[in-house]
């Protein structure tokens, strides 16, 4: 694993420990949940370390904490957690200092929550007359490998031509407004955003708690523009693990960038210093994130014959093996697939070696009022440069992919994802808002 | 209208504790005996036989030696009415009895039955009597009580116009006067709601009715006017009933147990009302006059805050700054929806689009979040 190193396992003072019951401590008090209790006893800093190549799924089972501080933000190369709550925010204040102080406060809260601790003075034990700092629904739950990943959208730099926070010149060239792709039917209310936070955790309540508390801290400075819950990971960044299936019942994204493959991460995910120059130097070590809400026409897909389903993907449904092969991870033989097959079109070999790190989740937001499932894929992809990643790939897929008959892109957003928060003095967006 | 929630200010309980038991107890004891406070009222003075007495069952024997009709009040701090007796004629006597808890009070004689009266400080001795009070907060509570009473007093004539229109069968006139008749109520709703029995009669919505409860009050008439588009004989009776219930509110509102904390929580609750009822358009689902209520709620919350501000500014200056900023911002938001041509000054809420509602909702969250910290800022005195 190339997880960020946390050299400061004891960053919370003993006094702080005493003052606010941490979620992990509460576990101990409960006495119940032996498995979880064992994690607590195992210590706080065991989660993941740089260079640790053990499959991350061992940690996944443990519900441990993923270190918050490091060279890169957690939640990208981190082994994909089970659940997602993704939120895009509009910045409602036009006061640069107010925004900066919010980002500092957010960072503090994020560090606490990812460690399994409550926000501020906690959820209980405070002043009886005041609402508690923490909303409390994660009390007694383990850290659940919560990661909070922060990004900034194009509109933060300038909106309607206005330099809102004095950072207009710092917008990286690669942070483009995504072009309109054929077949897009984007809902403005589910697209864009000045800021984003991706919360991933193995327990949905922990992920929702994190977004809820950040939104609450942000009232008056930011407002949630849209948010998306995801319940089933659709891709894995750990090749040893079983590739999860999407809502169409297929394994997809087998050729994903692996989180424990530093070479591929450097080549395809992290923005190198050489590409983060001048005003955009703040993004070195960061990444770009594309989020797409892809609605799946579940009912029509389910009426499609098995053969056609397999032809559309270019894979066998049972194993996930590429057409003409036996096992999922057998090398794909592209000519065996239809020219419009999804795997063939998306394969690196068809795209000059382009690879992106996919981290998407399935979603089902109930039904749509016409008796159809409002379900699909919430696609999340990290890459070094959108212009050489998602954009050319999606251009091709939008034109030719046989899957288009069964899907529709209904939400879209792009964000620049700053590098990791180095230490307790650092904060989300520091390099962007301060001079180098 | 509120959903099922426990009242902020437990006026009902207070009323029970302070029930005036003027009847038999007073008679059996006779006049001027031990434990009775003699109150000698004249047109220019208010003399008490004692300014300290044991807490508990206390009797005030009032004699009006003046030429004017007078009334006597016993006020708890913040001008909460503990007990009162009106219409004490020149040369007559009256007796007031009440259960009085340990603490500091004021007795007021009001010759001519108006104004603040001639006040005398008294102390009821007993355990807990010396609890330290902050005079700034007592002043805030007293001023808020005055505000609440004034809003109730102003509501009566406004509601009368509405009721008259209904009784005249004039649908258009009734529609014009509907929203404005509710402003005073909306501004002081948490206090009104503390009288558990009034709110369900005057401000209940169709979805708030309990099994077997007859739907009365403003919203029933709202439905007749906007949805059914006609005024029935029953509606006319309901209009008369509304006036009776509002008069009851006007009369009792001064007795509500208001504390600095309940003021602060009341302000927060007013914003809760906006967040759950007005921003969604549920409150005025037929008339779409939600923005009028919205503004009333905000104004009432702001009044409570402004009165507590001297203390808040000292205890939590950052909070005061943020609240000033957010109150200003929400008024700016509301200004975007004004309509000079409308009887109540606002556009109908069903013409306010999704994006604009989202903006209003964001402003409500931005204000309500710091407002939720107001109670703690006045509860802890620095």
From TrEMBL, chain A:
Keyword field: Heme, Iron, Lyase, Metal-binding, Oxidoreductase, Peroxidase, Signal
Catalyzed reaction equations: heme b + 2 H(+) = protoporphyrin IX + Fe(2+)
Region annotation (Disordered) ranges: 1-23
Cofactor note: Binds 1 heme b (iron(II)-protoporphyrin IX) group non-covalently per subunit.
Heme recorded as keyword: yes
Cellular localization per UniProt: Cell envelope
EC number(s) reported in the record: 1.11.1.-
Keyword Oxidoreductase attached: yes
Residue span(s) of domain Dyp-type peroxidase C-terminal: 243-421
Enzyme category, top tier: oxidoreductase
Entry-linked PROSITE patterns: DYP_PEROXIDASE, TAT
Record-linked Pfam families: Dyp_perox_C (PF20628), Dyp_perox_N (PF04261)
Cofactors (names): heme b
Compositionally biased residues, Basic and acidic residues: 1-20
Domain Dyp-type peroxidase N-terminal stretches: 73-231
Protein function: Involved in the recovery of exogenous heme iron. Extracts iron from heme while preserving the protoporphyrin ring intact.
PANTHER family in the record: DEFERROCHELATASE (PTHR30521:SF4), DEFERROCHELATASE/PEROXIDASE (PTHR30521)
Protein family according to the UniProt entry: Belongs to the DyP-type peroxidase family.
Stated name of the protein: Deferrochelatase
Organism per entry: Streptomyces catenulae
Phylogenetic placement of the source organism: Bacteria, Bacillati, Actinomycetota, Actinomycetes, Kitasatosporales
From TrEMBL, chain B:
Protein location: Periplasm
Residue span, EfeO-type cupredoxin-like domain: 16-114
Signal sequence residues: 1-25
Record's keyword terms, sorted: Signal
Keyword Nucleus found: no
InterPro entries (UniProt xref): Cupredoxin (IPR008972), EfeM/EfeO_iron_uptake (IPR050894), EfeO_Cupredoxin (IPR028096), Imelysin-like (IPR018976), Imelysin-like_EfeO/Algp7 (IPR034981), Imelysin_sf (IPR038352), Iron_uptake_EfeM/EfeO (IPR053377)
Pfam families recorded: Cupredoxin_1, Peptidase_M75
Domain of life according to the entry: Bacteria
Domain Imelysin-like intervals: 140-374
Chief place of localization: periplasm
Family that this chain belongs to: Belongs to the EfeM/EfeO family.
Protein's name according to its UniProt entry: Iron uptake system protein EfeO
């Amino acid at each position: 694993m190339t997880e960020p190193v946390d050299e400061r396992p004891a960053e919370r003072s003993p006094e702080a420990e005493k003052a606010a019951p941490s979620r992990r401590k509460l576990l101990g008090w409960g006495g119940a949940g032996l498995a979880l209790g064992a994690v607590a006893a195992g210590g706080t800093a065991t989660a993941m370390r740089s260079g640790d190549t053990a499959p991350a799924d061992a940690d996944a089972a443990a519900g441990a904490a993923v270190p918050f501080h490091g060279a890169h933000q957690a939640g990208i190369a981190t082994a994909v957690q089970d659940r997602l709550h993704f939120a895009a925010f509009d910045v409602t204040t036009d006061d640069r200092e107010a925004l900066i102080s919010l980002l500092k406060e957010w960072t503090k809260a994020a560090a606490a929550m990812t460690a399994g601790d409550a926000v501020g003075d906690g959820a209980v034990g405070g002043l009886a007359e005041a609402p508690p700092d923490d909303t409390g629904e994660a009390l007694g739950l383990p850290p659940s490998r919560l990661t909070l990943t922060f990004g900034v959208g194009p509109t933060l730099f300038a909106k309607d031509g206005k330099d809102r926070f004095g950072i207009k010149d710092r917008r990286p060239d690669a942070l483009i407004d995504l072009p309109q792709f054929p077949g897009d039917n984007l809902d403005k209310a589910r697209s864009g955003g000045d800021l984003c936070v991706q919360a991933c955790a193995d327990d949905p309540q922990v992920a929702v708690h994190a977004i809820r508390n950040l939104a609450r801290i942000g009232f008056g400075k930011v407002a949630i523009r849209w948010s998306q819950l995801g319940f089933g990971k659709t891709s894995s960044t750990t090749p040893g693990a079983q590739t999860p299936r999407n809502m169409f019942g297929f394994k997809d994204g087998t050729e994903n960038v692996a989180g424990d493959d530093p070479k591929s991460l450097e080549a395809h995910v992290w923005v190198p210093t050489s590409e983060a120059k001048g005003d955009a130097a703040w993004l070195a070590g960061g990444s770009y994130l594309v989020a797409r809400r892809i609605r799946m026409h579940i009912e029509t897909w389910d009426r499609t014959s098995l053969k056609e389903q397999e032809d559309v993907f270019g894979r066998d449904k049972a194993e996930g093996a590429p057409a003409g092969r036996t096992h999922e991870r057998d090398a794909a033989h592209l000519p065996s697939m239809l020219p419009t097959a999804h795997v063939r079109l998306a394969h690196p070999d068809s795209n000059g070696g382009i690879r992106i790190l996919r981290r998407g989740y399935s979603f089902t937001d109930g039904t749509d009022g016409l008796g159809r499932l409002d379900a699909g894929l919430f696609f999340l992809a990290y890459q070094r440069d959108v212009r050489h990643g998602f954009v050319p790939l999606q251009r091709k897929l939008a034109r030719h992919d046989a899957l288009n008959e069964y899907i529709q892109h209904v939400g879209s957003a792009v964000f620049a994802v700053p590098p990791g928060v180095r230490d307790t003095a650092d904060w989300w967006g520091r390099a962007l808002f301060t001079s180098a | 209208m509120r959903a099922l929630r426990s009242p902020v200010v437990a006026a009902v309980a207070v009323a029970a504790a302070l029930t005036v038991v003027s009847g038999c107890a007073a008679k059996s004891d006779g006049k001027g005996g031990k434990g009775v406070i003699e109150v000698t009222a004249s047109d220019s003075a208010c003399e008490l036989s004692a300014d300290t007495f044991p807490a508990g069952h206390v009797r005030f024997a009032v004699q009006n030696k003046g030429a004017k009709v007078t009334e006597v009040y016993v006020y708890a701090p913040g001008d909460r009415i503990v007990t009162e007796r009106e219409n004490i004629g020149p040369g007559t006597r009256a007796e007031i009895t009440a259960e009085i808890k340990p603490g500091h009070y004021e007795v007021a004689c009001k010759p001519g039955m108006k104004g603040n009266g001639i006040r005398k400080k008294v102390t009821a001795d007993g355990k807990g009597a010396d609890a330290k009070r902050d005079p700034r907060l007592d002043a805030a509570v007293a001023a808020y009580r005055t505000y609440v009473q004034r809003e109730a007093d102003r509501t009566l004539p406004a509601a009368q116009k509405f009721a008259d229109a209904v009784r005249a069968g004039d649908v258009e006139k009734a529609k014009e006067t509907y929203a404005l008749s509710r402003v005073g109520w909306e501004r002081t709703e948490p206090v009104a709601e503390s009288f558990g029995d009034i709110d369900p009669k005057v401000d209940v919505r169709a979805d708030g009715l309990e099994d077997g409860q007859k739907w009365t009050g403003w919203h029933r008439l709202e439905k007749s006017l906007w949805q059914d588009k006609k005024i029935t004989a029953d509606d006319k009776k309901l209009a008369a009933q509304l006036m009776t219930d509002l008069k009851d509110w006007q009369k009792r509102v001064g007795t509500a147990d208001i504390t600095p904390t309940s003021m602060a929580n009341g302000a927060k609750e007013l914003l809760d009302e906006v967040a759950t009822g007005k921003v969604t358009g549920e409150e005025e689902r037929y008339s779409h006059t939600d923005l009028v209520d919205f503004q009333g709620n905000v104004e009432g919350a702001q009044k409570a805050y402004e009165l507590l501000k001297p203390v808040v500014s000292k205890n939590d200056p950052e909070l005061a700054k943020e609240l000033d900023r957010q109150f200003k911002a929400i008024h700016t938001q509301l200004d975007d929806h004004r309509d000079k041509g409308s009887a109540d000054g606002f556009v109908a809420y069903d013409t306010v689009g999704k994006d604009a509602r989202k903006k209003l909702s964001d402003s409500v969250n931005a204000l309500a979040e710091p407002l939720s910290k107001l109670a703690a800022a006045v509860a802890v005195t620095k």
